[in-house]
Design brief:
VPS28_N_sf, 2 domains, de novo design (two linked rop proteins), VPS28_C_sf, mainly alpha, globular, Four Helix Bundle (Hemerythrin (Met), subunit A), VPS28_N
């Protein structure tokens, strides 16, 4: 049975096969990490690679596969962990790193958190609001917040940053945030930063 009659059709089938393989592989990787079958370093490296590959293939397939969860349903893929990981676009070890324990290290992590907040807010003030600029900065901020063991579970800053990471991950790398999004992100970051400073006081 011949699936494709033209080179373009064949290439689309190949790209869909790559997407299918990435989803399956990422699902297995997430499950292995949940079960503690691989180290954090192995997980982080492989997960970042799969996320990067996914972004590349999804750009090529953006017209025929506008929604990866519908693609998974259509091809009867059971991959909830992979879909959740792709939604946020960063490995779990960055989203939820192991908190650091000692007070001396906590002081260093607090300084990193403050530095990361200021870096993201300055980037916005300098109109550097492209997705490929903001996503890594917010990822670093999320990681430094996760490294801090003094944050209460009710701290809303992490939830807001996670929401922004998910939103940015749905956009193209070259997209810029519009005026409303810039204003909302600035507001959310400022509020989160002020809440963080109040927690320290």
């Amino acid at each position: 049975m011949k699936l494709a009659t033209t080179f373009k059709e064949r290439e689309e089938y190949d790209n869909k096969a790559y997407l299918y393989a990435i989803l399956q592989s990422l699902e297995l990787l997430e499950r292995a990490f949940f079960r503690d079958s691989i180290t954090q370093e192995e997980y982080s490296s492989a997960c970042a690679k799969f996320i990067s590959q996914y972004k590349s293939v999804s750009r090529v397939l953006e017209k025929s596969v506008p929604d990866v969860s519908l693609f998974a349903q259509e091809y009867k893929l059971d991959c909830p962990a992979a879909l959740a990981r792709l939604e946020i676009g960063i490995p779990s070890t960055i989203e939820n790193p192991n908190p650091v324990g000692s007070e001396a290290i906590n002081a260093k992590v607090v300084a990193e958190v403050v530095q990361n907040y200021i870096t993201v807010m300055d980037s916005i003030k300098l109109s550097m609001v492209a997705v490929d600029n903001l996503h890594p900065l917010l990822g670093e901020l999320m990681q430094s917040l996760g490294n801090l063991n003094i944050l209460p579970p009710t701290f809303q800053g992490k939830a807001k940053i996670r929401e922004w990471l998910i939103l940015l991950n749905k956009l193209k790398a070259s997209d810029d945030l519009d005026e409303d999004q810039i204003r909302q992100l600035s507001f959310d970051l400022e509020q989160s930063y002020n809440d963080f400073i109040r927690l320290l006081g």
